[in-house]
Write a sequence for this structure.
């Protein structure tokens, strides 16, 4: 019962900080709210006994990607005067795109909820390294390898972009 | 050309070998150097307890000497003031009256003699210029004050007192006169 | 969870907290002494005999200084910055196994706050969070030197985390576990340093970079950036930043001792048992940590600072490929030993 109360509190905190990401005026502050959101998600993983996923979430999202976000934002000159103003049209487009993404997510999540429940009952070790490794390298090996190819393609693309610019200067 | 010392090093910019590129040997040799320094004798002088020795030729606060009979040597010739590069010395001269022979050695003496210690650079040229062996720099330090006027030293501070003579025998002599 | 366990863990946490803070305080003293010895000086010797009360005097000074927040600074983030730095420095020690089991009051006491089975990943996670303290503090100060320091810190940490992680993975491959306890117990015969000298070297260099210690102290270099990210800080906020650096130095020395030098294992361990073994193990571990701290300080007072492009070259073009090759070779050897060819 107490676990449920904790997860309700964590969930509402997550929602609140996620909302603050969108609502806060200052970009650096909204990045920091995003970091807090990731932390709360990490703690939810821990609640589900998925320690590996929790720590990976912390290292990759909170530790690396958000640092890069902050890094870029700090280099920008974010004064009130130079802040780009969104036009009415783009605001409408953003609203429609975000709303439809929201709808898709809700419909997708509606079906997965039941599946998640059954997993939790069967395996208490599901989130630990051994289980995860076994799953990744047996059942989901194709998806895993495809993802790694995707990452290599992205890396090669990034290096190419950086190299080409240099050659033009020379 | 033959070099005078063997310490000359020819500069070269040849590319580094792989051994040098690893840098680790150089780092380790540097760390051994610092390690050796850890066990060396400390050079620190813990000041209030220990004080550093003065050199015999240290140039500190001036003194106006008296001779063996206690007469002031200075004759107010003004050579020290002329020699002074910082123009710190001023004086007025007066004629010796009858009955003052036990006070002043020469017939003319300095009625006032002032050194501005804020201007003085303690170069010792006054000592060198003096023909009468009257002014010397000693190993005493000039103390610090909060007001500027305290730094103008008159005869009261400069002339050595009769019962407290200041020994200058170890100091570098100017070589004009061997004995007084 | 029974009450006795709760009390035991709380005492352990409190003890760890005090020990890390005390160690950090006395590391400042030791660092000053060492710097003095290397430079043929005496070092602090006025406060108490041999100056051993110097850290306390420094701490009092830090508390009594004026606490200043710049007018144009982001006030909340300015305050949060040093807090995050100190927090992340302290919570890393939660997964460190400090010694063999201690037997007291009829209970087996595990000298580890939490034996989570992904201990090493937890350490990396916390280290990667640690950069926020510096970044937020540096940005919130609204000072160009601080901003430079923050930017340098973040790019440096991201660059060196990769090589550090890869060299730690080789250790994980060797011991087959992510738990620090298992890694330490696996080294009771031979320490990992004899299998993985290259990985240790890479890990050590990267640890120096992550700690912002010389020769990688670019985020806070005094001569270029006037203190870097903590230029605008004063009083105990500055104290927290400096303290966090020393605390994380302590903890990362512990991590290095665990991963490569067998943690609390020492030669001739089998002759002892029970509480004697535990105490000796703790002492062995502490002396290993001390040696690491000594070497880190020794390096600081020997080697000059890198230039920033040299730092990036070293990280991306030397250490990362080297660690990847090392990982590949280790993997191949392990696969060969298991008879996979």
């Amino acid at each position: 019962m107490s676990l449920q109360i904790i997860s309700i509190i964590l969930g509402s905190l997550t929602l609140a900080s996620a909302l603050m990401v969108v609502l806060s005026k200052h970009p650096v502050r909204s990045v920091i709210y995003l970091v807090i959101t990731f932390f709360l998600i990490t703690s939810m993983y821990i609640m589900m006994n998925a320690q590996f996923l929790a720590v990976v979430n912390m290292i990759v999202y909170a530790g690396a990607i958000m640092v890069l976000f902050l890094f870029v934002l700090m280099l920008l000159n974010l004064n009130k005067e130079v802040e780009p103003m969104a036009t009415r049209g783009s605001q409408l487009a953003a609203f429609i795109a975000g709303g439809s993404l929201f709808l898709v997510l809700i419909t997708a999540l509606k079906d997965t909820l039941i599946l998640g429940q059954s997993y939790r009952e069967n395996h208490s070790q599901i989130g630990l390294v051994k289980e995860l490794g076994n799953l990744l390298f047996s059942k989901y090996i194709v998806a895993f390898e495809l993802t790694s190819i995707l990452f290599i393609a992205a890396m090669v693309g990034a290096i190419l972009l950086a190299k080409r610019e240099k050659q033009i200067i020379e | 050309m033959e070099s005078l010392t063997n310490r000359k090093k020819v500069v070269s910019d040849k590319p580094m070998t792989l051994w040098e590129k690893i840098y680790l040997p150089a780092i380790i040799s540097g760390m051994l150097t610092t390690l050796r320094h850890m066990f060396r004798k400390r050079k620190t002088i813990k000041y209030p307890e220990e004080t550093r020795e003065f050199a015999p030729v240290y140039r500190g606060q001036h003194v106006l000497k008296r001779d063996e009979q206690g007469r002031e040597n200075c004759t107010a010739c003004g050579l020290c003031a002329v020699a002074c590069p910082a123009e710190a010395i001023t004086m007025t001269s007066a004629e010796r009256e009858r009955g003052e022979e036990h006070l002043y050695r020469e017939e003319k003496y300095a009625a006032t003699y002032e050194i501005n210690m804020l201007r003085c650079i303690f170069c010792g040229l006054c000592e060198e210029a003096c023909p009468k062996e009257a002014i010397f720099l000693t190993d005493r330090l000039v103390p610090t004050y909060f007001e500027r006027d305290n730094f103008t030293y008159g005869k009261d501070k400069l002339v050595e007192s009769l019962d407290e003579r200041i020994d200058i025998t170890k100091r570098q002599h100017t070589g004009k006169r061997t004995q007084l | 969870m029974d009450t006795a366990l709760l009390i035991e863990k709380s005492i352990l946490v409190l003890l760890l907290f005090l020990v890390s803070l005390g160690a950090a305080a006395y590391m400042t003293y030791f660092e000053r002494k060492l710097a003095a010895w290397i430079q043929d000086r005496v070092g602090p010797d006025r406060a108490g005999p041999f100056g051993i009360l110097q850290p306390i005097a420094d701490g009092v000074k830090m508390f009594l200084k004026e606490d200043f927040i710049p007018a144009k600074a982001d006030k909340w983030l300015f305050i949060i910055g040093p807090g995050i730095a100190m927090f992340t420095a302290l919570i890393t020690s939660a997964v460190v196994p400090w010694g063999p089991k201690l037997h007291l009051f009829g209970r087996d006491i595990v000298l580890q706050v939490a034996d989570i089975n992904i201990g090493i990943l937890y350490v990396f996670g916390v280290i990667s969070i640690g950069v926020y303290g510096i970044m937020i503090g540096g940005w919130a100060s609204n000072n160009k030197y601080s901003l430079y320091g923050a930017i340098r810190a973040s790019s440096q940490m991201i660059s060196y985390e990769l090589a550090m992680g890869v060299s730690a993975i080789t250790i994980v491959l060797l011991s087959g576990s992510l738990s620090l306890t298992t890694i330490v117990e696996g080294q009771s015969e031979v320490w990992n340093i004899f299998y993985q000298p290259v990985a240790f070297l890479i890990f050590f260099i990267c640890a120096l970079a992550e700690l912002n210690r010389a020769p990688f102290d670019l985020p806070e270099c005094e001569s270029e950036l006037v203190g870097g990210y903590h230029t605008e800080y004063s009083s105990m906020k500055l104290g927290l930043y400096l303290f966090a650096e020393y605390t994380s130095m302590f903890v990362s020395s512990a991590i290095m001792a665990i991963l490569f030098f067998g943690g609390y294992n020492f030669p001739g361990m089998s002759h002892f048992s029970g509480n004697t073994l535990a105490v000796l193990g703790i002492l062995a571990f502490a002396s290993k940590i001390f040696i690491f701290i000594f070497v880190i300080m020794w390096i600081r007072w020997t080697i000059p600072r890198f230039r920033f492009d040299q730092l990036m070259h070293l990280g991306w073009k030397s250490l990362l490929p080297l660690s990847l090759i090392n990982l590949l070779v280790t993997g191949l050897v392990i696969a060969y030993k298991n008879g996979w060819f």
